[in-house]
Amino acid sequence: MAPHVQFLKMNGLGNEFIVIDARKTKPQLGADAVRALSNHQTGPGCDQFITLEKSPAGGDVFMRIHNADGGEVEACGNATRCVGRLMMAESGANRAVIETVVGKLIGYRCDDESMVTVDMGVPKFGWQDIPLSEPFEDTRVIELQVGPIDAPILHSPSVVNVGNPHAIFWVKNDVESYGLEVNGPLLENHMIFPERANISLAQVHNRSEMTLKVWERGVGLTQACGTAACAATVAAIRNKMTDRTVLVHLPGGDLTIEWREADEHIMMSGGTELEYAGEIDLADLSWRKLPAGSVE
Ligand SMILES: N[C@@H](CCC[C@H](N)C(=O)O)C(=O)O
């Protein structure tokens, strides 16, 4: 086994990723190693640890996703754009098929190499699909609240599965004013979500614009969350709050989300950044940046 593994540090609107190419050799990195490398004190630091593997079903690549807490998850919108960028740079094509545990996603190159659009597939709304621990006939708004019973701080979220579980709380004021750093962990781990959930606060400004703040499952507050932007847009459309294309403002930048009427696929467009290449010593998980242009 190779004593070192190279990685790329990338981000999508400040949502940070370590990307390892394991298509030829798969390094043995368990949950403890993922946690150590994802931590900014002990590793390069990231929100998701991404492993690229050979595609078992005819895609360009298989993308495995681990949250910073070491848990494997089903979907990551911003990482899909970053991996799409890498695959299209590698092949020179304008399209890349990225497989995940929940299916194939298709990335498309925009005019600028750093801008990528991804087809995130079709959202699910059934309570068993989210999943929720008890039946709700209508998931456009469910009964759930935090704070005093007669004056809740947050209440009545919409729930959507876009590959991973999301709950979106609709707020009237600035998303910063609801203490998501305190309420986020309580809601992520609420018994109504048997697989936990990503928690968003969404302030809808008009028919085509909203601001979103996200507490990501297995990570915490992040600069951006692509799947949350998809889930919030779809939920807003179902609740007749917006039209079918929405500009979503996140702390790290903007995403454009379109929920296509014809086939119900969600299209997500936004920036990606390739920060640097690095190398991890597998014996002790120490790491270093590599000089620009030195990665195979
Ligand atoms: N950063 C992501 C979402 C990553 C997974 C999420 N934390 C989960 O546990 O489902 C994105 O851009 O979508």
UniProtKB/TrEMBL annotation:
<comment type="subunit">
    <text>Homodimer.</text>
</comment>
<feature type="active site" description="Proton donor">
    <location>
        <position position="76"/>
    </location>
</feature>
<feature type="binding site">
    <location>
        <begin position="226"/>
        <end position="227"/>
    </location>
    <ligand>
        <name>substrate</name>
    </ligand>
</feature>
<protein>
    <recommendedName>
        <fullName>Diaminopimelate epimerase</fullName>
        <ecNumber>5.1.1.7</ecNumber>
    </recommendedName>
</protein>
<feature type="binding site">
    <location>
        <position position="164"/>
    </location>
    <ligand>
        <name>substrate</name>
    </ligand>
</feature>
<keyword id="KW-0457">Lysine biosynthesis</keyword>
<dbReference type="Pfam" id="PF01678">
    <property type="entry name" value="DAP_epimerase"/>
</dbReference>
<keyword id="KW-0413">Isomerase</keyword>
<dbReference type="InterPro" id="IPR018510">
    <property type="entry name" value="DAP_epimerase_AS"/>
</dbReference>
<dbReference type="GO" id="GO:0008837">
    <property type="term" value="F:diaminopimelate epimerase activity"/>
</dbReference>
<keyword id="KW-0963">Cytoplasm</keyword>
<dbReference type="InterPro" id="IPR001653">
    <property type="entry name" value="DAP_epimerase_DapF"/>
</dbReference>
<comment type="pathway">
    <text>Amino-acid biosynthesis; L-lysine biosynthesis via DAP pathway; DL-2,6-diaminopimelate from LL-2,6-diaminopimelate: step 1/1.</text>
</comment>
<feature type="binding site">
    <location>
        <position position="48"/>
    </location>
    <ligand>
        <name>substrate</name>
    </ligand>
</feature>
<comment type="function">
    <text>Catalyzes the stereoinversion of LL-2,6-diaminopimelate (L,L-DAP) to meso-diaminopimelate (meso-DAP), a precursor of L-lysine and an essential component of the bacterial peptidoglycan.</text>
</comment>
<dbReference type="GO" id="GO:0005829">
    <property type="term" value="C:cytosol"/>
</dbReference>
<dbReference type="GO" id="GO:0009089">
    <property type="term" value="P:lysine biosynthetic process via diaminopimelate"/>
</dbReference>
<feature type="binding site">
    <location>
        <begin position="216"/>
        <end position="217"/>
    </location>
    <ligand>
        <name>substrate</name>
    </ligand>
</feature>
<feature type="site" description="Could be important to modulate the pK values of the two catalytic cysteine residues">
    <location>
        <position position="166"/>
    </location>
</feature>
<feature type="site" description="Could be important to modulate the pK values of the two catalytic cysteine residues">
    <location>
        <position position="216"/>
    </location>
</feature>
<feature type="binding site">
    <location>
        <position position="198"/>
    </location>
    <ligand>
        <name>substrate</name>
    </ligand>
</feature>
<feature type="active site" description="Proton acceptor">
    <location>
        <position position="225"/>
    </location>
</feature>
<feature type="binding site">
    <location>
        <begin position="77"/>
        <end position="78"/>
    </location>
    <ligand>
        <name>substrate</name>
    </ligand>
</feature>
<feature type="binding site">
    <location>
        <position position="15"/>
    </location>
    <ligand>
        <name>substrate</name>
    </ligand>
</feature>
<comment type="similarity">
    <text>Belongs to the diaminopimelate epimerase family.</text>
</comment>
<keyword id="KW-0028">Amino-acid biosynthesis</keyword>
<feature type="binding site">
    <location>
        <position position="67"/>
    </location>
    <ligand>
        <name>substrate</name>
    </ligand>
</feature>
<feature type="active site">
    <location>
        <position position="76"/>
    </location>
</feature>
